[in-house]
């Protein structure tokens, strides 16, 4: 068993006092870590509450594949500690900058190319420590994979973007790094690529990433050396530098270049959804389940097409069309009611990141 304390700083009491004061004064708080994902959602007006000084890997057991980390810990620091033990974060989170923190990673709930095969960020969350609006630090879940006490609330915090409470610590399941890795590029049209991915998805192939753009299908194989070698031989294609997946994860490929003035959309869709009737340029990730769209089409048109396909659309860049546009798909009335009630129960004065997800909450 290994217990690691790197750059250990426990600032929980100072954070508690700041939250208590904000609760008493009914002062909104803008929760900030590395601030690399500030673009994701609405901007927040409020006093800045930084988690950066509350940092450190509090507990790490490589044998049990468990790590507990304070929210302000740099994501690079955690990944380096895991890498030293031949392990990794299975959901392959994007950083979007060198200052990304563990707290921001869980609060936004974003996952990288491996997500369809390994699981989403919330699937790896075993437990959290969360500061309530009254300045009390509560623990939900635990540090063992079979512990389910409070687990759902920990998952609820994943992706809530700090609107329901301040995440101060998170316990995560980690994975061993694969024994072998090889990436391929195959030239084929979109429809054939989608059909092939559907076929391969029913077979025990060591696929851990699949993307398509402009006539090329990109694949990553990971697993045992013999399995990876056999699959590489079977599928053929050209060798691809593995850094492609890092560049995709961090949105540094040419497709994501800021030179394109069209808004960037993320479409989340059922597996194997055929090509959508939307103008623009599309980059297919997650074997087609996540699609990045550069388009000048109207917000309503994009969201209507995504909804009819059984998915939803998120605007990743500022969208203006005669006024502010919600970054996230508007909630159905019943869902909005539950969302509003939950926010009122956990944060009655609305001090935690008000309006970050939806302007009305």
Please outline the helices and strands.
Elements (H helix, E strand, L loop, with lengths): L11 H14 L3 E4 L14 E4 L6 E5 L4 E5 L4 H10 L2 E2 L13 H7 L6 H4 L6 E7 L5 E5 L9 H7 L8 E8 L1 E2 L3 E8 L2 H11 L6 E7 L2 E8 L1 H11 L2 E3 L2 H7 L14 E5 L12 E5 L4 E5 L4 H10 L3 E4 L17 H14 L15
Parallel strand pairs: 1-2
Antiparallel strand pairs: 3-4, 4-8, 5-9, 6-7, 6-8, 10-12, 10-13, 11-12, 14-16, 14-17, 15-16
Protein name: Glycolate oxidase
InterPro entries: FAD-bd_PCMH, FAD-bd_PCMH-like_sf, FAD-bd_PCMH_sub2, FAD-linked_Oxase-like_C, Oxid_FAD_bind_N
Keywords: FAD, Flavoprotein
CATH C-level name of the largest domain = Alpha Beta
The chain-level structural class is alpha+beta
pLDDT averaged over residues: 92
Biggest β-sheet description: 5 strands, antiparallel
Fraction in beta strands: 15-25%
Shape: globular
The strand line-up of the biggest sheet is 3-4-8-6-7
Q: What is the strand tally?
A: 17
What is the name of the CATH architecture of the largest domain? 2-Layer Sandwich
Give the count of structural domains: 3
- According to CATH, what is the topology of the largest domain? Uridine Diphospho-n-acetylenolpyruvylglucosamine Reductase, domain 3
Cα-to-Cα separation, first versus last residue: 43 Å
Domain FAD-binding PCMH-type: 1-177
Protein name: Glycolate oxidase
Pfam family, one: FAD_binding_4
InterPro entries: FAD-bd_PCMH, FAD-bd_PCMH-like_sf, FAD-bd_PCMH_sub2, FAD-linked_Oxase-like_C, Oxid_FAD_bind_N
